[in-house]
Design a protein that fits this description.
single chain; 8 helices; mainly alpha; Cytochrome Bc1 Complex, Chain D, domain 2
Length: 167
């Protein structure tokens, strides 16, 4: 092997040199143009994907929490539905279905059913005040005793029932 063969270039003719020089400029320019075209000419999102209904569907909660009574016990909502369908409002049924959870034990400071000393100051404020507190909640007591399905008449009947046994 001669010394000339070891140090020789793969470009042997002027035509090969011109081709290499042209490709050295053209290939990067074409690559840059294609990349810019890819970035600028991106296909836009589907217009239907931006409607309020489609957005609401995408951001809806993954799950829901549902509180139900253990098997064999009546759920407060079911008790309220039974009361609503039964005709005249029965305060005892509403109390047994919703109010008894706190008012039978005195949970979270609720006045116990039949406790005259605890009910006296509340009764003194008047039935309208008691109804307003029961409808809108106060302290640890949630509005409507935690059952939004109850009507104002059902709440009033339950209050009448508890007050009548606490005078």
């Amino acid at each position: 092997m001669s010394e000339h063969d070891e140090h020789s270039s793969f470009i042997k003719t002027p035509r090969q040199l011109i081709t290499i020089v042209v490709l050295a400029f053209v290939v990067p320019i074409i690559s840059i143009v294609l990349l810019v075209k890819l970035v600028i000419d991106r296909p836009s999102a589907d217009p239907a994907a931006m409607t309020p209904a489609a957005i609401a569907e995408r951001i809806q909660p993954v799950g829901q929490v549902s509180f139900t009574a253990p098997a064999g016990e009546a759920a407060p909502a079911a008790a309220a539905a039974t009361v609503a369908k039964a005709g005249p409002v029965d305060g005892k049924k509403v109390y047994d279905g919703v109010c008894t959870a706190c008012h039978s034990t005195g949970a979270a400071g609720a006045p116990k059913y039949g406790d005259k000393a605890a009910w006296a100051p509340r009764i003194a404020t008047g039935m309208d005040t008691l109804l307003n507190v029961a409808l809108h909640g106060k302290g640890a007591m949630p509005p409507k005793g935690g059952n939004p399905a109850l009507s104002e008449a059902e709440i009033r009947a339950a209050i009448d029932y508890m007050v009548s046994h606490s005078k």
